[in-house]
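Teaching assistant here, posting this on the class forum so everyone can see the example we discussed in section. The complex has two components, and the goal was to see what a joint structure prediction looks like when all of them are supplied at once.
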Amino acid sequence: MEQKKKEQAVVYRQTQRATGVFDMWIETSIAKQARPGQFISVYTQNRSALLPRPISVCETDKEKGRLRIVYRVAGTGTKEFSAYKSGHRIDVLGPLGNGFPLEEAKGKRVFIIGGGIGIPPMLELAKAITDAASKDIILGYRNNELFLAEDLKKYGNMHIATEDGSAGIKGHALNIIETEGLSADVIFACGPMPMLRAVKHYADMKSIPAYISLEERMACGVGACLGCVVKTKEIDHHSHVNNARICTDGPVYLAERVEI
Amino acid sequence: MINTKVNIAGVELKNPVMTASGTFGSGMEYAEFVDLNKLGAVVTKGVANVPWEGNPTPRVCETYGGMLNAIGLQNPGIDVFIERDIPFLKQFDTKIIVNVCGRSAADYVEVVEKLSDQPVDLLEINVSCPNVKHGGIAFGQDPKCLSEITKEIKAKAKQPIIMKLSPNVTDIAEMAKAAEAAGSDAVSLINTLTGMKIDIHKRTFALANKTGGLSGPAIKPVAVRMVYQVANAVKIPVIGMGGIANAEDAVEFLLAGATGVAVGAMNFVNPYATVEVVDGIAEYMKTYGIEDLTEIIGSVK
């Protein structure tokens, strides 16, 4: 296991990618350790907004010690982050969470499914999966602001759906599978809850494993406060009740293990 | 040489700094960040006689200068706790304070009895959680009920007991006096203040439980005031908490009359907070030439 730490990172570069979506590279030692599907906690400088914001790792440059986060402005914290310029100092905690089980992709036909602001962690994942039989990258967006699509298409067969039909097929990520007649042996997914429910249902019907990355309101991010739990099918080994901590036991779960 | 030792109900702590129940698990998670050997005591997350599921999510939300939580005392139950958490904490040179919760007097007593032969230094009795309907809050808001539950637990407890008081009362000093008269060896305060947040975009409550307990720096002045009132009303030691973020905050509580101080929600903001408070108190003592920390406890009258 890697060592979690809180440290001061430096903003290397920030650009806007879509309406309300920002792309920030930071220089941090966490970059070297972070694995696909993990997240970092980012602290605001507004002392009235104390809790860190959990944001998924989008990409890392291990050599240069840089880590990329792509996030949507959703409130005071992320609004503050979006104004940061190169050189700005920012407190971060990480790497947090379990990450995707890359070994499950070996020799398999893989679906990498991302919806909306659940797309960013799929980039580091798509890069890291190198021994799959095939990779279909299935992305669902609101509209034709296709952030990260250019980055992702280098790593697999790209398929796009938009809610308004302005790019790709009209509909959601899961509609693509049906429309294009795709199939897979294993699924990795991150996105809004309705999408994850659809993925869980699809995987169940096809009897294939799906690893889904969940999100919940968090306080500590390290497993102490029990704020961010998900209902589990079986009694959880740590909590001894049907709840698992998303920040530490997750955020990635085998879909059949969780009640969502 | 400075002396930071304090004594709570016959138990000597190397320094007054502890963790507030529910913000530090049983120390495992934060042991990655801080050396637990440096803490005066670790106060565990509340544990009941059987596992509790806790409340639905969302369980936490941020508020101005603090947060609301309604975890609902999720815990693995005392049997797992004795098997796993106590041996973990025993590896460290720190005192162990187990927070005990229950829905009935019998629940508390069962836990306390199971802990009787365990290497636990003190028991903190949670009769003040605002997030569980029958999580003891009824015991903590009426002096008569508090007195009765204190007596029942005290009669069975092998370790000294600390009744944890709710700030959601008209007169917290009355509650402290009731606990003292019933045999409590110490009191700790404050538990969280009941609050509510509404999500104006979703037009719903921010917490699934609707209400939650407010903690963090936003509540510190209320906590200091209550610690001062209680410390001047009882003779038993007072453990103060509520929004402590750094050593300056902790010293305020000591001056107000607290013998121990606990870091709570700020662990989430700064995982190193506890040890920074320990070091900062020593710095404060050096700066002001204080040789023995007990000199300043309750010195602001």
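For the discussion questions: Chain B has nine helices and 16 strands. The CA atoms of residues 63 and 222 of chain B lie 16 Å apart. Think about how each of these relates to the inputs above.
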